[in-house]
Automatic annotation (TrEMBL):
Residues 558-655 form the DUF6784 domain. The chain crosses the membrane at residues 42-61, 73-95, 162-183, 221-242, 262-284, 291-314, 334-350, 379-400, 406-433, 440-460, 492-517, 557-576, 596-614, 626-648. InterPro entries: DUF6784, DUF6785. Keywords: Membrane, Transmembrane, Transmembrane helix. This is Uncharacterized protein. Residues 4-520 form the DUF6785 domain. It holds the Pfam family DUF6784.
Amino acid sequence: MRIRFRAVLTGFVLALWICAWTPVNNIYHQGTPLAGGHFPLAPFGVLILLLVASAILRKAAGGYELFTGHELLIVWALTTLASGIAYTGLARTLFINLTAPVQFATVENRWEETLQPLLPSILFPQDRQAIRLFYDGLQQGRQLGWIDVVRQVPWQAWMGPLTFWGVFVLAAYAVMICLISLTSRQWLVYERMNLPLLQVPLAIEEAYREKRLRAFFTNPFLVTGMLLPVLLHTINGLSSLFPSVPSIPTLILAGSYFSPGGLFSAFTKLKIAIYPAFIGFAFLTAKQISLSFWFFFIAGGLVIGGLEFFGYRIPESALGITFGPTLARPEETQMIGAYGVFFLFLLWLARDHLKHVILEAFGLRRPDPDIHEWIPSRAAFWGLVLSCLILFGACVYAGMAPVSAFLFLTAGFMVMMVATRVICQGGIAYFTLTAAPTDGILAFTGIRFLGGINGLLAAVSQKVLFLDLRESLMPSLVHARRVSGFRSPQRLWTAAMTVTLVGAVIVSLAAMLALCYRYGARSLELEWATRTTVNLYEDAQKLILTSVQPHASWVKVFSAAGAIVMLVLVVCYHRFYWWPIHPIGYLTAYSSAMRILWFSFFCGWLFNAVCMRYGGIGVFRKLRLFFIGLVIGDFLMGGVWALIGLGWDATYRVMPD
């Protein structure tokens, strides 16, 4: 399928516009995130608007197409790749991360003595005046235009750190691109992995390509599905602006129904959250997988309660020093072992494909002429090696020991690969890690490799790329790989993707700096970024001041237990065709994302199971449009309220942040 230059140019321009506007909308206006999760709002809105415009033009011009259906997906893919960079994927926490050791240093925390002497000037800004203005804002900055603000940003103070982190981030993106180029054939062609988050764009593109767009959007099932979230968010949005309007509850706090002690003690904070779009994604997910998500969420809570019931109440202090974004109990460190075993399982599934890739890389096997990769296997393999060497060299140059840098980068990309599989195959648009990559190293080696400057740099680098995965790049790369296809040349697409990512990093960081220097970071909605960053440095300080990782025995026990459970799950899943649950559900058992989405997956699984049991494939195809309508309607209202929020002080958020 040929891609015209106009498509990639449109995607590039719109991607940069989204990156420039996202910090203002998400942080200053506190509107529905334009780049939230792995099915971001803004790119989907762009897809719908371009599709409608192209369809109208096609009809008016007698069949002339401004964009083909495939080109519309290319535009969507480019904007999706870039959108997360402007928010949680990079810019949301980067500058807080780099300035926190100076800005939040106090006599009590002693950061000036313990942390600041270790900060390399190439990584962290040293100009205290520039840091103060970042948090307080420029004098009369609110009265300045955006161009004047950009001119007055103290770029000289930031030039060194931004150069280092720009190279680091882009090298990491190159690693991800090469990894997806090398592994996507295994996942998408040989394993035929379903991508639930991609089903809605694909269904819309198919209707456009087959010239049945009107029939698609007027289908009674789809219209009904769209009307439900439209009605829900119209009422609740008006209620948020006018409190006299009654609202429809979408969040039920069910924890009060459970005793704080005993078997169900882990459910004292249970939430039942209703998000129509996520119910739609869950219905589009394979039934075995949607079952496994809510099943393991319940089972994970019962494990904690069961241990307490039998007298094993393990204190939270037994966690020792950890960096997991939501890690709260020792039992949750099962995920350390589970991630490791599942990664080995992925390697085992791809063993034949990886063998062929290595042979092609060394010129011992000819590539398949009918398969067009983003980058030819030989170039992708050596590009991966080169990118990894750049990352390794950057870590060592910053001050990390070579062994520490190797372990950290290996753990980081291993976790990233597993998380990408979970997100893409499971259809989880909102995903958070339980344990961080460094937690696995600390669990089995203590602080031997992550003590002192090694732990500090690993923690900071991890926060930049490998920790906050709600908008990580790699899952979007998998979706983009599916959109670009395997049967047509990829040179234009690969070039457009590369240029877009570089431009997105530059524009996102510049937009974030301009926003903070205009209004002052302390007056913006950055509480989450500040709190998590301060916690990170507090934990890093513990690594510097301690000589032994405390209370690590329970972490090792549960990590080993997680590895054993995952080994049993993957063996049963692979050997027994009747096995009812999927191993990736276990990987999300303690994720904060599942605390929000478990009910959505339960509903999606239930509707899917009942439909297939009593209605068959014919009813499933009809109801599928209803659940696609839930997704479209939810995101439609997200866009509407994002626009309304520009003119009102009060805001209404449709999606979780």
